[in-house]
Amino acid sequence: PGPAMEPSRSLAPVLPPYEPLLEGQEVEAPSRSTIVPLEPPPPPPPRDHLAWSLCTALYANVCCLGFLALVFSVKSRDRKLLGDYSGALSYGSTAKYLNITAQLLNIFLVILFIALLATGTITLVNLFHQGQEHQPFLGPT
Asked: What is the CB neighbour count within 10 angstroms for residue 42?
């Protein structure tokens, strides 16, 4: 009888734990519950864009805008540490716009440099060919 009972016991449904009824409480009465009020999470602190400003200051410092962005990023981080989120937001947005301006100027200057290099190279090749037409190369003498 022992081994035959083992499989039927393992197939029995698992019941959830129960709470004993208090005196005077009926079976159909709702159970006691605890309500925990949840406060909304605090808003995330404003971004200071320090890493972006550091990269802009080191690699794309057009008209010193990268250094200005770095200064405003550090000011934003200081304000954030002091708990002044409105000041940190203001300094952070200024740093962001300075970074964007420096990046756009840098992209424009790179494109301009490439365009000038390409047109200058083409002009030099044309001048070289015109010089060859007037004085043909005869070879070593």
From this structure: 7
Residue 120's pLDDT is 83
Residue 108, domain extent: 100-131
- The whole-angstrom separation of Cα 62 and Cα 37 is 52
The number of folded domains in the chain is 1
Is there a domain that residue 77 lies in? Answer: no
User: If we measure between CA atoms, which residue out of 55, 106, 96 comes closest to residue 73?
Assistant: 96
Q: Is residue 2 pLDDT above 60, yes or no?
A: no
Tell me whether residue 38 is in a domain.
no
Query: Distance of alpha carbon 124 from its chain centroid, rounded?
Result: 45
90, pLDDT greater than 60: yes
More confident residue, 55 or 124: 55
Cα–Cα distance for residue pair 47/55, rounded to 1 Å? 16
Token match 């970074």: residue? 99
Q: Is 106 a member of any domain?
A: yes
Q: What is the DSSP letter of 11?
A: T
